[in-house]
Amino acid sequence: MIADTPGLMQAVRDRFAHVDACPFTGPRVFFENAGGALHLKSVVETSAFYASIPDNQGRDNAASTALVETIARGKADMALFFNGAAGRVFVGESGTEVLFRLIRTAALAAAPGGTMVGSTLEHPASNSAMARYADVTGRSHLRVAHDDATGVVGVEAYRALLTPDTRVVSIVHTSPVTGMAVDVAAVAALVREIAPEAFIIVDGIQHASHGAVDVAGIGADGYAVSPYKMFSRHGYGVGWASERLSLTMKDQLVGSAADAWELGTRDTGAYATFSDVIAYFDWLGGEVSDATDPRSRLEAAAGAIKLQEQALARALIEGTGNLPGLGELPGVTLIGGDRIEGREGVVSFVLEGAASADVVAHLNAAGVRVHMRKNDNYSGNVLDPLGLDSCVRVSPSHYNTLGEVAQLLAAMKALVDG
């Protein structure tokens, strides 16, 4: 665990901008990482540098050559992150836009007829795209029901809706509301067993900063992430597509390579800042393991992040020191139960007799930044079946500490005690 290695937690925190203070309000604990993680200081510096360069790609000058090299390095780092050397990586305007493109391409490329299958756990980014292109292609959009009690959708729940004529399957890797991870590899294996030709598209936006991504191991055809949720910045999304999906007909310029995904000139700074993230994982993996090759160090970093965040989730739910956890406070109900295993970066709850907005305001006044999720098109799929109009979402990351958890729990105890 990161916190168990002397000096490592401080070294981690030193690499992030505004780790313990907001530039507008002063000192605060940042537990709003699911809404957008802290940015690496290197990302901030890199963004400014590439924003200042007037040259374009593909010109006969040294600056243009450097830009092309930066993009090539960024693509290599993206492929390393996805473990997707056999496919294609590309940059889009956001993770949501990338999901729409992957799902649109899969729906239009699949054999006619059949069905498209998703789940009720999914974010509207994938659910909306699935609904839209099921309608365009004249297919039924079937949704596997998630379990309200556990906040996840199980593998066997998919079996009833999968058939040999299933054409496209969307899977959310981790719910940004319940925080619970789906066994994506097992779901994909079931899809391949029943509908081997189906295209499998994964929403990895919540998962990407909390665990390793392995599209080769999953057997997916598409995977999307939002870099601003994985320590980079806003303004771009990153996707990976399998070779078979990449070689289908898609939106692209006439005369482009058959497997080309990107439309127009992308921001070189997007590739460069993604490389900054991979460099950070590489450094962290080297600190927590003896691994020497880049992929192994990346996986070691992901393992250390997982252990640190499990400790934070356990403290949030079960308590730390003499402070009771959220799962022990009277009147608090946890969304998706109190399970630690499988939880990735989110603990959501409601407090009986208190509006979620008031709880968020109370914590903010105590110097703890959290967020309210409303029963709307973003979170209603989870909250509506529970009869809730909102919830409070606490979303820690690996650079958060047990002391910061204690600050939140102390504020919550004061609120409950009145």
From TrEMBL:
<dbReference type="InterPro" id="IPR015424">
    <property type="entry name" value="PyrdxlP-dep_Trfase"/>
</dbReference>
<feature type="domain" description="Aminotransferase class V">
    <location>
        <begin position="29"/>
        <end position="257"/>
    </location>
</feature>
<protein>
    <submittedName>
        <fullName>Aminotransferase class V-fold PLP-dependent enzyme</fullName>
    </submittedName>
</protein>
<dbReference type="Pfam" id="PF00266">
    <property type="entry name" value="Aminotran_5"/>
</dbReference>
<dbReference type="InterPro" id="IPR015422">
    <property type="entry name" value="PyrdxlP-dep_Trfase_small"/>
</dbReference>
<keyword id="KW-0808">Transferase</keyword>
<dbReference type="InterPro" id="IPR000192">
    <property type="entry name" value="Aminotrans_V_dom"/>
</dbReference>
<dbReference type="InterPro" id="IPR015421">
    <property type="entry name" value="PyrdxlP-dep_Trfase_major"/>
</dbReference>
<dbReference type="GO" id="GO:0008483">
    <property type="term" value="F:transaminase activity"/>
</dbReference>
<feature type="domain" description="Aminotransferase class V">
    <location>
        <begin position="325"/>
        <end position="408"/>
    </location>
</feature>
<keyword id="KW-0663">Pyridoxal phosphate</keyword>
<keyword id="KW-0032">Aminotransferase</keyword>
